[in-house]
Amino acid sequence: MLAGRKYRLKLTDAQAEMCEKFGGICRAVWNTALEQRREYRRRGAWMNYVPQAAELADAKREHEWLRIAPSHILQQTLRDLDRACRTHGTFKVRWRSKTRWAPSFRFPVGNLIVVERVNRKWGRAKLPKLGWVTFRWTRQPGGEIRSATVSRKAGHWYVSFLVEDGVLTPGHHAGTPVGVDRGVVVAATTSGGAFHDREFATAGETTRYRRLQQRLARSKKGSANRRKTIAAMNRIMGRATDRRGDFTAWTANRLATRHSVIVLENLRTKNMTASARGTVARPGRNVRQKAGLNRAILGKGWHRMELAIRNAARQTGTEVVLVNPAYTSQMCNRCKHVDGKSRKSQAVFVCTACGHRDHADVNAAKNILSAAGHAVPACGDLGVTRSAKQEPAASREVPHQLAFELV
């Protein structure tokens, strides 16, 4: 199967400057081709990859700056644009802003890429027009390289290899089904009572980031101080993003290894985190509260967790099922009574019909699992040989104490 291998690059000043130029040229090709596609759509006509690639070849003869970048990375940019327009629509694809877009480009021809290990800590790769680039060797690529993507993030350059590792997805998994509830207080809660969560930004980083935001608001656009402030903010946000990625990959690996079926809510995170500000004619309500909820959802990485689980499931043969999220947090898993008043607080669930008590997130995770057709007994165990009165053992992943007392 195809897998990604990402490494941090150690570029020379000349190579870093060349990467900046390649990224800028790809950005210009993307924006120009997108504007051409939109103009054709306004006239009722269509434009796709084939004629744009032919026009790009003609443009390279007229403009010398286009010949700086390798031809295949520009053609790959047009292919990515074509795929984005077909998936999302021509007028919904975004421009690549010079200030907001991080430079990246892809070498799609794998047989032109050579990877060697120099010593225990370092390796090198030969990329077209860049020559030999050094990267931190953290693991073996482990297969045939299909493509390489060079990108910049938080002031550092990285290379990602797309590798065909030759591994096939297993056809059978001996684990048990599990339901996973994603929340804004605890990132992921399982139907077995395990809580997966961690802080992605320290208190000092949060304070520092808010001060940088205030400094950014006072800085002049286009100034050197503004660029320095943005770079400092990107470094803080980059560390938090890396921690979030490590956490989601770690959690997804353990869920996919232990369970044969993982049931998630079918959440459209993009729609859920849309701004409530509205328009001038129809202003939104509770804008500040909605903004806080949006930050909490994005901060816990709901969508990234789902992607990580799907990626880990390919290695273990685990089945990922999506269910309707309606009333999963208000329904009692024992008697199936739905009442919003049953959820006394974020952590306490007491059914108003039968009096069943449980942690609110665990109860929701059990409902998610039941919605996929996997019945969960009231005591929470999935085994048929255990006693119906036996309570499940405490999970090792529980980072905080559960409190079921009513306030």
From TrEMBL:
Taxonomic superkingdom: Bacteria
Annotated ranges, domain Cas12f1-like TNB: 302-368
Keywords assigned by UniProt, alphabetized: DNA recombination, DNA-binding, Endonuclease, Hydrolase, Metal-binding, Nuclease, Transposition, Zinc
Molecular functions (GO terms): endonuclease activity
Domain Probable transposase IS891/IS1136/IS1341: 162-274
Family assignment from sequence similarity: In the C-terminal section; belongs to the transposase 35 family.
Protein name: RNA-guided endonuclease TnpB family protein
Organism: Actinoallomurus oryzae
